[in-house]
Records
---
Amino acid sequence: MVVAAERRAVMARPQASDKIAPIGGPGWERGKRKVASVELRGLSKRYGAQAVVDDVSLSIEHGRMVCLLGPSGCGKTTTLRLIAGFIEPSAGEIAVGERVVSSPARTLPPEQRNMSMIFQSYALWPHMTVGENVAYGLTLRKLGREVIGKRVEAMLATTRLAELAARYPGELSGGQQQRVALARALIVEPETLLLDEPLSNLDANLREEMRFEVRRLHDEYRYTTVYVTHDQSEAMTTADLIAVMNGGRIEQLGPPEEIYDHPRSEFVARFIGSSNVIKGRALDAEHLSLAGVALRCTGGRFTAGADAALSVRQHDVRLLAAAPTGGQENVVPAVVLRNVFLGASRDYMVETPDATQLRVVTAPAHNVAPGTKVYVYLPPQRCRVLAA
Ligand SMILES: Nc1ncnc2c1ncn2[C@@H]1O[C@H](COP(=O)(O)OP(=O)(O)O)[C@@H](O)[C@H]1O
Ligand SMILES: [Mg+2]
């Protein structure tokens, strides 16, 4: 059964050379813990004719958290399972530190990788208490009862589960189960932590809180972490680096600010959210025509005469009641199609005379009825050239 296999595999088995110091106990030297770099080199996984993971290269430094972000079906889980060693690559290889752990020729089994993986389903043992679930990986390592007891106690305190030690998973909320899964994965001190949409079973409030918790634990222990999610804000809260995936490939890799402010493709601009994509023909290196207005765009350069696209965020577009006097650049006439009050903001859909629709986010007090003629201002420095 897959879940049972996953439950067992959650726990990295020790290497002969491993010396495990009790957390917080004597010999616990956080600064000296091993943390592995993880490197994917031209990694591909094909099922039949479909390349589910397609020539992915990614280098993750020691102790960093990288987020694989992308829509459902883009190959995130498959990439994670390749890293964990549950499946073998069709091409390319994975190295942890100096050691190649996966290649089409040879794949090191999951239990020899010193990795912990947290599954979307948590995969807790239902017949074990919280304390026993957390202790499980150490029990496999045949550590002494006293050592296990101390480390479990310290880990339960860190993950704020001490009061729940005697409960069974069925007696816990989603958030509590999620913390047990984290505690159980962390207690074996993996070199690498793999998380597959770990918060997707939680309700919205708890999900937000747990994002910070995941990041806090990462900062405390500094594992090399690969975090998979389809949620943009989850990725932005937790990751040092975001790899945006599309159709089995990494479409853009960078720190959250860069991905957000400088999406390089239409896919990234749309997926990272809240961007309008405007398509047309480039008039010259700086201008794209929209509804007869030459939009100036300072974020990148167009190829004159070619089909081109730019992105501009919904909240960077200004909604104006009248055209500014003095003929300001980048102002386009439009009609309000839709105005939705969202409490902290208003979400508009407007349409230009050439039928381009733009989303605009404004302050909640800025209330303009549908059907009203308005102008939109697209600040040149907020317009980004997208790769063709
Ligand atoms: N064992 C498999 N056999 C065939 N196709 C698979 C298998 N596992 C995954 N896929 C396909 O690979 C694609 C990517 O899946 P997955 O990695 O789970 O995506 P994600 O986690 O990003 O939602 C999907 O189209 C899925 O149907
Ligand atoms: Mg998945």
---
Amino acid sequence: MQNVNEALAHRFGAPLPGVRQDLQSQPFWQQLANRRSIRSFRPDPVDAALIQTLCALALSSPTKSDLQQRDIFIISDSGVRGKLNELLAGQAWVAKAPAFLVFCGNNHRQRLLHDWRGRAFENDHLDAFFNASVDAGIALATFVLAAEAAGLGCCPVSAIRNEAAEVSALLNLPDFVFPIAGLALGWPSEDGEISLRLPLSVSVHTDRYEASNLREAVETYDQRRTGIQPYEKQRFASDYGQSDTYGWSEDKARQYSKPERKNFGAFVRAKGFNLD
Ligand SMILES: Cc1cc2nc3c(=O)[nH]c(=O)nc-3n(C[C@H](O)[C@H](O)[C@H](O)COP(=O)(O)O)c2cc1C
């Protein structure tokens, strides 16, 4: 594992000024700086008690207004897991993960509180969906970091939202509960690699939004990434051909040149949310 400075300099393409010497090997910082998604696992199971502990750690993370609008589903039934694997057949590696969880936003409990306490729910607008989504995302990220600190590997799977209605039926989700992402979990059988990120000058702003050099910065990032981590396969090559300069920006532009999850809004509305 690289120290904090080395790992961040590699990830962001430039050394950071002033990472204090005594924090260079701070274990949690070092883990964060070196983190990577893992998609290949040893077959060994992940202990159920460990997963429960990780859920508790994940749910120790901040939650908007203490509303606690996120739930974690541990998939233990082989029938349910098999059906999820079928829904995720496009990502065959998922089926080989020893453990799988689904993170959901949950605004259902909040609405029940209003029924129980006889108080009107006067926040039936986009914020209700947004707050629960953010809460679930925070829990997902915290679970990932806690799992990685225990030596586990994991990778979120937003592809479950491609089949949101089916996943919802499978998990018996009531109105106002919706899947955010799955999480494949297990003991890593690969090292994975640090994924390079856009430079901090692009995604960290001081006081005001500033993007005057964005295009140049993205081109430089494309070249750096292609030099170190070239894409193994070009997306939609049958439609767009093979590019000699294929990089991150071309990959992302190709990715969202095709519709994805077009019916997710309809699914969320059918769950009862008002998105206005
Ligand atoms: C909400 C969310 C959903 C994701 N869904 C998928 C997915 O469906 N399939 C997949 O292979 N990776 C998925 N990922 C992993 C990302 O591709 C990965 O985080 C990104 O490529 C950066 O790599 P790193 O995590 O190793 O830094 C997801 C990540 C997040 C945060």
